[in-house]
Amino acid sequence: MRDKIAKRWIKGTAAAVLLLIMAVAGWLTGPIYYLNDDVTIRYILSGACTGMPDSHGVQMKYPLTWVLAALYRITGGLQVFVPWFDLFMAGCVLLAGTGILAGMMQAVRGKKGFARIAPALIGAVLFTGLLLPHYLYMHYTIIAAMLAGSGLFLWGRRQGRGLPLVMLVLCYLVRSEVFFLSVPFLLVAVLDESLGEVERAARGRQLLDRVCCALKRQGRPLLILLCAVLVCWGIDRVGYGGSEWQEFWRYFDNRVKLYDYTDFPSTDRYENRYEELGLDWGQYQVLIHYDTILDQGIDAEVLERVQESIQGMKEPVAMGERIRQYLRSYYLHMRYDGVPYGLVWAGCLGLLLILQVIHRRWDRLILSAALLAGRSLIWLYLIHRDRFPERIWISLYLIEIGLLAGMLLGEWLENPASPEGSALAGKTWRRGAAAVCMALCLLLSGGAAFMQLRQTLGNMRIGQERQRQWDRLTEQIAGSGVELYLMDVYSAVAYAGEVYGRDCGQILLLGGWLGQCPLVEQRLALYGAEDGAGALLHPEVRLLALADRDISWLEEYLSQRLGPVELKRQEIISCGDQVEFAVYRLVKPHSPAGGSS
What we know:
597 residues, 5-stranded mixed beta sheet, two-stranded parallel ribbon, 22 helices, 65% helix, 6% strand
């Protein structure tokens, strides 16, 4: 009973300390989102998209989005604004940080002096340097990686399986792709803990019996995790079971293949070859400008055909040359990118290997070598698939650092060569080696925290200035009387959104991953239109774009689609720092409504 109370006190203390850090940091700087993907999810859940909170968050799994949308409906019915999505995301950061800090504090409970203080300091600094920046500059992919990394850290610490299981399930619900990336690292954590179980088992028992016992202890939580993921997957399938959503997912998958796995959006090499892609001029313009909601005729089959045609145009490259390119990219990234995550990762791995050699744990040394080889294969695969943006490699680092930190803490605390089983109870040189390792960890995590916080604050200053521009835009259109502004995607791509803010229901992006989405079709149907081009004919719909952005292609495209029409610039909205947005109305020639204001 006393042990349970102590554990709860440690977790409560860790959560309170980290919550205070988050509150102060958020109050001083004002957290914002890294990309508009998160804001688009919130845009759906909060009801800004269709006028009613909807559970189809697309990028997150349905059980979670159903709960968040239900909360929005309840508080909305009471005429109270509560930023449930933002609070959930912040709660995930707090949960991940609490897991790491409380795990550190619990592991050294009963020890004295430096042995007790150092791990707690390392946990606090790791949170401040590696997790807190992604609360201030937030993205749901990285939030999922935090949960996975913290869950892997706790897996082998013999402090219960409940919290790490909750974290891993939440990781799946927030971003299932990150969960599946973390599965190989989870297997390493399972093997590491199984080896520890074998060492701790009674010496008189047969080795096979000890191994079976260890695997049995690991099998139960893995089975629970599998069942929980399958249940969530099943609920998600039911939530998106309608035929219109199935068609949307076909479109979504082909959109990902086209825009993420080919060079189509980043080059103009297809400008005079669009017919070879099976497109007409108008379809090519819509796709290259990413304003796909303009044309419902660009469906899953069209995207699939374009993607396959582009793949067929590629010059064949020998397998050996491709492997050399991948290895070079991997080397260059490890050498020049990834600061400070790469430093923390390399430091944790290096110290772990040193302790394993000192403690003569050759089986753990082999496991660490396998971990290094496995992570390299995963990274090379992602490079091969051209799926290696910053948010992905940061996520991988966070997962790996969580696992390595847990293994390093276990190696520091347990020394099989010592009769007491503690690294601090062996020979003097072993005690010194353990102390030096903890000191190096503290120094490394402190340096990483300084670098990461400085970089994050720089990014936030840019993001907050853009947010002020966006706020000026939304404030001015709020009193315009216009119901819907269809916004050019590339005019909005620099603007994400503030955490704990409200979404502007007057603005609907003309593209992104909401193309062909039933929710968008539902919104456009209010204006008697099937797509964005038709909606622009409605008197309560306007086009919104950066004032210096060339939209002549759009006027020509709309004239081909709808007959003779003209985009009339009605208003210029100044947002500061020489940033201006233009409001256009689509009119037919000689229409009395065609005057500009």
